[in-house]
């Protein structure tokens, strides 16, 4: 039985592992034995593009717009083909000018304008606040869902007091992690090796957890892709999700999302941080050019099967599609898989 105690123990144990990896990464950096001077670690750190929204929201989006989730990942995949030249050049510029942020980079291209740098910083902060809140909501919602085990329901997240809100404590933990491994160094040009190592590790855990629930849903609940898609095609509402017409706005929306995602993989502040500022060797870009798209392919491999499987298991909006990733193993009474999936989204 997944009691609150078990779930909280697993969550804090996983967070402790991340803190330990970050601590060891920093210590090895001081000893000049880098953990992140590796093209595979670099490539996995780039997977920070896939947030908690990717983990839960992609399936939710696929459940309402069908193939409409694809442009968000096709854009970065297309852009990665240009990394051998474009990203390499940005990394060289950043190292030459000792650039430590996206704002610094843009300001340096216009005469190192302090006013422009400040403006970009303000825009980034304002733009990223709702983005961070989405991630906090996703994690808080997943905890609220798993608390109901073995029942599969979508609980309310409204609390009268902030100390009853799971997202508040998650934010405190993230703030502590950021202070310890992201901002405590006085030398702004120093690499945050512990932070990057932890990001790479959690990217791997997230991928394995998502593949595990995808395999369980596709091959154990529905006897394979063929059986799952056959059942879905038998229902007109689900069959429509397998066409391009399911996405509102049609091709215009597809093109807009494709363009935005192509820019996002370069210019989201977190992407610029790991891809440019934390790069220790530009030769790592060569492997990242194909490893990062491979990661995107694998983590999206079961998005549509999970969306269709969730709609077949929970018809008529009985369960929020954004929670299908967690709700499906809960419905199958798979305690360990449910816990692993929860950890993957954490």
Textual characterization of the structure:
This protein is mainly alpha-helical and 346 residues long. Helices cover 70% and strands 0% of the residues.
- Give the oligomer, counting copies of the same chain as homo and different chains as hetero: single chain
Total strand segments: 0
Q: Helicity range of the residues? A: over 70%
List low-pLDDT spans. Answer: none
The biggest beta sheet, please? none
Q: What's the overall average pLDDT, rounded? A: 86
H/I helix tally: 17
Measured distance between first and last alpha carbons: 20 Å
- Using the CA coordinates, give the radius of gyration: 21 Å
Q: Helices and strands: which structural class? A: mainly alpha
In short:
The chain has 346 residues and is mostly helical.
For this entry, give a set of tags.
about 350 residues; mainly alpha; 17 helices; about 70% helix; globular
Q: What is the secondary structure topology, with strand pairs?
A:
Blueprint: H1 4-30, H2 39-46, H3 52-65, H4 71-80, H5 86-96, H6 102-108, H7 114-146, H8 166-183, H9 193-221, H10 225-233, H11 236-239, H12 250-267, H13 269-277, H14 284-299, H15 303-313, H16 324-331, H17 335-345
Helix pairs in contact: 1-9, 2-9, 2-14, 3-7, 3-15, 4-12, 4-14, 6-7, 7-8, 7-17, 9-15, 9-16, 9-17, 10-15, 12-13, 15-16, 16-17
